[in-house]
Design brief:
By secondary structure, the protein is mainly beta. The chain contains no helices and ten strands. The termini are far apart.
């Protein structure tokens, strides 16, 4: 059974940093690309960052490029998102998943506010 547990969110001031983690289980982690998504109140879920199965190919949404870094540890079945220079518009619930995945975790809330 595919399962994701996101953690690391919190309240941070603009310009601050957070590191999100995603623990994945129930599938062969190192065979799948992984995505980070976010959903702000009243908005559609959006794709934030993508990393290939071995980590060699990475892409970002334009809104986070240069500020966020996605990474993974296949030995630990873990996915990460380092978020720097946070802005109020980054406030959202952040989720991890495989591309086109249908099983979602609870997500982790990120709030950027002074």
């Amino acid at each position: 059974q595919v399962h994701f547990v996101e953690s690391g969110g919190g309240l941070v001031q603009p310009g601050g940093s957070l590191r999100l983690s995603c623990a994945a289980s129930g599938f062969i982690f190192n065979s799948y690309a992984m995505n980070w998504y976010r959903q702000a109140p009243g908005k559609e879920r959006e794709l934030v960052a993508v990393i290939s199965s071995a980590g060699g190919t990475i892409s970002y949404a334009d809104s986070v490029k240069g500020r966020f870094t996605i990474s993974r540890d296949n030995a630990k079945n873990m996915l990460y998102l380092q978020m720097n220079k946070l802005k109020p518009e980054d406030t959202a619930v952040y989720f991890c998943n495989v591309p086109r995945g249908s099983s979602w975790g609870q997500g982790t809330q990120v709030t950027v506010s002074s």
